[in-house]
TrEMBL record:
Pfam families: UPF0259. The chain crosses the membrane at residues 12-31, 52-75, 95-119, 156-178, 190-210. This is Glycerophosphoryl diester phosphodiesterase membrane domain-containing protein. Keywords: Membrane, Transmembrane, Transmembrane helix. The keyword Membrane applies. The lineage of its organism: Bacteria, Pseudomonadati, Pseudomonadota, Gammaproteobacteria, sulfur-oxidizing symbionts. The keyword Mitochondrion does not apply.
């Protein structure tokens, strides 16, 4: 089943990559350039909290908009309805606040889990995988969506975790090995960081596509959410 979900997700991503990129890149490109330049300018000996918080603050502003837009785009494809990119972005803005609250709340819980024992963080990540869809499609509150996802994703925990691990290895490994060819702190490395972060902002959508594929299966199979 995991293989089927992964292949289906890759097939969808591959067929719709142009539209996905058109949704993501106009928002992510300036963000990735600004944050990469900012992070590369940090003096580790004079590091202050603001240096760490600025990228997170900017990310919390822009990530929900294009992620929401991508989710509604996937839904429109599945339901055979057409939606233009401006409409999808407007939906991203409409649901920005509740999605941001969900992202921050789940992010804090997952981070604490990862810091403490790692495994709890991974479990939280998988069990909250359906929350964005419940929040957007059923217009539940962020915390209700998280609670609903916690129960609904229980039977799919290992499938979701397995998919995330496979996607992580496939997506990030090439960038890691290529980065070893450059000298840390060099201009070439900076350019590579900017380009790779921009590309990864699109490839990162694979996690959402995979989660949505499992969510649709779970919804149709068990009539959940």
């Amino acid at each position: 089943m995991l293989t089927t979900f992964l292949l289906d997700s890759w097939s969808f991503f591959k067929r719709h990559i142009i539209t996905i990129a058109a949704i993501v890149l106009p928002i992510s490109i300036p963000f990735e350039i600004i944050t990469t330049l900012q992070q590369n300018s940090i003096n580790m000996e004079e590091l202050v909290l603001a240096d760490l918080l600025l990228p997170l603050l900017i990310d919390s502003m822009v990530y929900p908009v294009y992620t929401i837009a991508v989710i509604f785009y996937m839904s429109s494809v599945v339901s055979d309805k057409s939606s233009d990119i401006k409409t999808l972005w407007s939906l991203g803005i409409k649901f920005w606040l509740p999605f941001m609250i969900y992202s921050i709340a789940s992010g804090i819980i997952i981070t604490i889990g990862l810091i403490l024992f790692i495994i709890p963080g991974l479990i939280y990540t998988a069990r909250y995988a359906f929350a964005p869809f419940d929040l957007l499609f059923n217009e539940n509150t962020p915390f209700d969506a998280m609670k609903n996802s916690w129960h609904a994703a229980k039977d799919y925990l290992w499938i979701i975790l397995g998919g995330y691990i496979v996607i992580t290895v496939i997506v990030f490994s090439p960038f890691y090995f290529i980065s070893q060819l450059f000298t840390q702190g060099s201009t070439t490395m900076l350019i590579f960081d900017i380009i790779s972060n921009i590309i990864l902002s699109v490839l990162h959508v694979m996690y959402t596509v995979f989660s949505y594929r499992v969510y649709e299966y779970a919804k149709n199979e068990k009539q959940i959410l």
